[in-house]
Amino acid sequence: MLWLQSFSHAYPVLGGAYYLAGRAASDVKRRLAAQSAPAELARRVAIATYEVEMNICIHAISGEVLIVMEGERVDVVANDRGPGIPDVAQALTPGFSTAPEKARAMGFGAGLGFANMERCADEFRVSSQVGIGTKVEMAFLPRPDEGVKGASCAASGHH
User: Fold this and answer.
1) Is the Cα torsion angle 116, 49, 63, 59 positive or negative in sign?
2) Residue 154's pLDDT is what?
3) Fold (topology level) of 12-140
4) What is the DSSP letter of 75?
5) Of the four listed, 4, 43, 52, 99, which is most buried by Cβ atoms within 10 Å?
6) What phi and psi, each to the nearest 5 degrees, are found at residue 29?
7) What is the pLDDT of residue 149?
8) For residue 114, how far is the Cα from the chain centroid?
9) What is the mean pLDDT of each run of 10 residues along the chain (159 residues)?
10) DSSP code, position 73
11) How distant, in Å, are the alpha carbons of 17, 19, 47, 73 from that of 121?
12) pTM: predicted TM-score of the whole model, two decimal places
C-alpha cells in the first residue's frame, strides 16, 4: 500500500477564473509526494487534474474536482455546470476545440485536454448532458514502468 492514509477532498472551480485553475492539481501532487508515491504517478495525476480544471474554467459556469486517494489508487471526478457536450466522441478527437477566443489568446483551447487526460489516466470516462453539464471520471494506479525515463503521458505545455 502506497498511502498510509486515505484522502478525499472536493475543490471548487469557477468558470473563467483562469488564475485559480490548478489548485487541485498542485495539492494532489504535493500530497502524493508527501506520501512517497512514485513521482511519475504524481505527475500523471497532476497533468490530468490540471487539464480537467482548465476545461471547467474554459467551458463551464462552475464545477468541482473531487480527489480520492485510497490504497494505491487515485480517483479524480470532475463535474461541471455548463453547456454540456453535444458530441462526446467528437470532443475526444485530438485537436477538436470549442474554446472561446479569450482562452485561445491565453494559450489554452488547443483541443488536447481530453487526449492528455486519457493518456495519463488508467481509466477514463466522459459523460455529458447538453444544457446541464459534463462529468469526467479518471482513475490512476502505479504503472510497472513508472520511473522509466520517456514512459510518461505528455504534458499540454500550459503549465
Assistant:
1) negative
2) 52
3) Heat Shock Protein 90 (3.30.565)
4) E
5) 52
6) -65, -45
7) 47
8) 8
9) 73 92 94 89 96 95 95 95 95 90 86 93 97 97 70 46
10) E
11) 25, 25, 10, 11
12) 0.88
pLDDT at residue 147 in the model: 58
Using CA atoms, how far apart are residues 88 and 154, in angstroms rounded to an integer? 22
pLDDT, residue 153, reads: 63
Q: What is the pLDDT of residue 156?
A: 44
Give dist(CA 140, CA 41) in Å, integer. Answer: 8
Helix %, strand %, coil % of the chain (to 5): 35, 25, 40
> How far is CA 124 from its chain centroid?
10
DSSP secondary structure of 130-153: TTTEEEEEEEE---TTTTSTT-SP
| Sequence-ordered list of residues with C-beta below 8 angstroms from that of 157, at least 6 positions apart, any chain | none
What's residue 150's pLDDT?
45
DSSP state of 45: H
Distance CA 81, CA 28 (A): 23
Q: Cβ distance 49 to 13 under 8 Å?
A: no
Residue 132 has a CB neighbour count (10 Å cut-off) of 12
What cell numbers appear for 49 in the block? 487534474
Q: H or E stretch including 56?
A: helix 39-59
C-alpha cell at 23: 489548485
